[in-house]
TrEMBL record:
This is Class I SAM-dependent methyltransferase. SUPFAM superfamilies: S-adenosyl-L-methionine-dependent methyltransferases. Pfam families: Methyltransf_11. One of its GO terms (molecular function) is methyltransferase activity. Residues 75-122 form the Methyltransferase type domain. It is an enzyme of class 2 (transferase). It comes from the Bacteria. One of its GO terms (biological process) is methylation. Signal peptide: none annotated. Its EC number is 2.1.1.-. Keywords: Methyltransferase, Transferase. The keyword ATP-binding does not apply. The keyword Transferase applies.
Length: 249
């Protein structure tokens, strides 16, 4: 599964890596880093995987012994992961679904490699936000200076929850963030800092980005058997095609 990056047939575009170096990109990256650090710090298991956006070190606060970031520690096709079924305890998808050629295929593959009771964390840009509105208006006008990278497609929060439900994922935590208008400079973003508290209180679902943490449920599974299987799996890590040795912290 490839990712659409760079120039598109809709006009010149800044790619995601370059956009993350801009003031709004840095703001989004900082918010997501704080959210994921808090979420993964107390998630236990043996094997964790991040797919997409290597600029975000989504597993740095996690203590699982085997952690991989696609593009940094291993190279793989996102819809054909080099892991056995039910072998991972945590998968992180920071904007990977938006950039995937087939988001459904990616989710199905993630469901395959996750263990029962394994965790899935997703970050996505919210089309029902000021940032999403600004981007869509720019696309309609074929703007030469889009606010966000042109590649990828927004996936609505409630739409994504429906997809997860069909794959037997249960959402256990969700939140929105970034309520400032789609401004380009740090000075103007700072001037609108006050709106963060107001937005999270009065219109929480209109944040520019959303975070979802879900758990893979398998109906009728006995947790005693699951614990026994996890202890057995801990004796060896899944086989993967590594660029470098896996991280141990």
């Amino acid at each position: 599964m490839s990712v659409n990056v760079g120039v598109t047939d809709k006009g010149p575009s800044i790619d995601l890596a370059a956009w993350l170096q801009t003031p709004p990109g840095q703001h989004l990256l900082a918010w997501e880093q704080s959210q994921v650090d808090a979420a993964v710090a107390d998630l236990f298991g043996f094997h964790a995987l991040q797919l997409g956006m290597p600029e975000l070190d989504g597993l740095q606060a996690n203590r699982m012994p085997h952690r991989w970031r696609a593009g940094t520690d291993l190279r793989c096709e996102f819809d054909a992961l080099p892991f056995e079924s039910a072998s991972l305890d945590l998968v992180l998808l920071p904007h990977a679904l938006e950039l995937a050629d087939d988001a459904h295929a990616l989710l199905r593959e993630v469901e395959r490699v996750l263990r029962p009771e394994g965790r899935l964390i997703i970050f996505g840009l919210n089309p029902a936000s000021l940032w999403g509105l600004r981007q869509n208006v720019g696309r309609l006008r074929h703007s030469r200076e889009p606010y966000l990278p042109r590649q990828g497609e927004f996936i609505g929060y409630w739409r994504l929850r429906d997809w997860l439900k069909l794959l037997s994922f249960e959402v256990e935590a969700a939140r929105f963030g970034i309520y400032r208008p789609p401004l380009r400079t740090q000075a103007w973003l700072d001037r609108w800092q006050w709106v963060e508290g107001v937005g999270s209180r009065w219109w929480p679902v209109l944040g520019a980005v959303y975070f979802i943490q879900a758990i893979k449920r398998v109906h009728g599974m006995r947790l005693v058997g699951l614990a026994r299987n996890q202890r057995a799996a801990a004796k060896k890590a899944p086989a993967v095609a590594l660029n470098n040795h896996h991280k141990k912290r």
